[in-house]
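idk why but the lab printer keeps eating my pages so im just putting this in chat instead. protein + fe (ii) ion:
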Amino acid sequence: MLKPFSFTGAKKIVFGSGVFDQLTNHLAEMKVTRPMVVMDRMLAQTGFKDKAADVLGRGGHKPVLFDDVDPEPRIELADKGAGLAVKGKCDGVIGIGGGSAMDCAKAIAAIAANKGKAVDYLGLNNIPAPGLPTIMIPTTAGTGSEVTFTAVFIRKDLKKKEGMNSPYLYPDLALLDPQLTLTLPPKPTATTGLDALCHAIESYTSVNASPMSEMMSLEAIQLISENLRTCVHDGSNLAAREKMLLGSLYAGLGLANAGVTAVHSLSYPLGGMYGVAHGLANTVLLPAVMMYNIPGAMEKFAVVAEAMGEIVDDLPLREAAYMAVEAVEALIEDCDVYESLKDFGIKEKDFPRLADVAMTVARPLQNNPRKIAKEDAVEIYKGAY
Ligand SMILES: [Fe+2]
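predcted complex ->
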């Protein structure tokens, strides 16, 4: 018997090479006349600002630009952006970039329409009413933020990351154009792509997975493991970039519906306390968390191994499941990501404190296929050291 389930995501998804050029048609359909464009600072400097201005200008739009977004954004940025959107009388918000820009854009749209403060909307279901219409345009194949109901920020005052989760954060349109990912350098291509792999594997093995989310997650695992190496080492390969973007979209849909698991809980304090980039923090923890989780979801991890190209036919189930860890470690190595927790300046004596914070990131832990206590978290950090 199936458990009852629901499935959700962005209201509309448009995918394809060159679809960015049709942005103004979508604005017209959504009746947005004065959009705010929220963009990563670095991305704006690499010519995306002009590209966006050009496309919007052709449709007669003069957008309000907010390009102050840094990786791992502070929550105050969302208030600042919302202030500008209200002052500029914006009636829609476009997020262009990685997870930081899209999360900021989603929060800005909610704050601008509801007139509150970002900190009031942290947690689950604390945004009172729908925000301004939103369009999310990813330039990395990673976060999946274009289809999720989450926006995550750093709280410098508390030295931690915190998220807003609300159905009002689901974007109205996810516009995915693989051409926009062609110029992403190898290192962020690798770490954002491996973050997407985390979303796929975690959502697939989540206790909240449904037949629909599993279908998305599993396809994502396959697409990512078949194409990430090519994207890292031959970034201009549009066919591989297209499949990676599709993989990260599917992984985002898996994550939006089944949730993530312990990798994301344990990586939160690495971002909050040590400023480690989200994708990198997750990558470093993924093999150790998988090793811990395998006894809780042996069949599923065997399927993960197979989806990643391992030949598991004649192997006992347990061995097949552990092949998934080998496949992930090989992919990480082939993408030239060699860091461990040591490289972030973390000391072993810090593990209990990290584990304390990780235990407060409760929702992903509840999804974990194996029960996890503080002592287990400390052991996992040791495994990733
Ligand atoms: Fe993530």
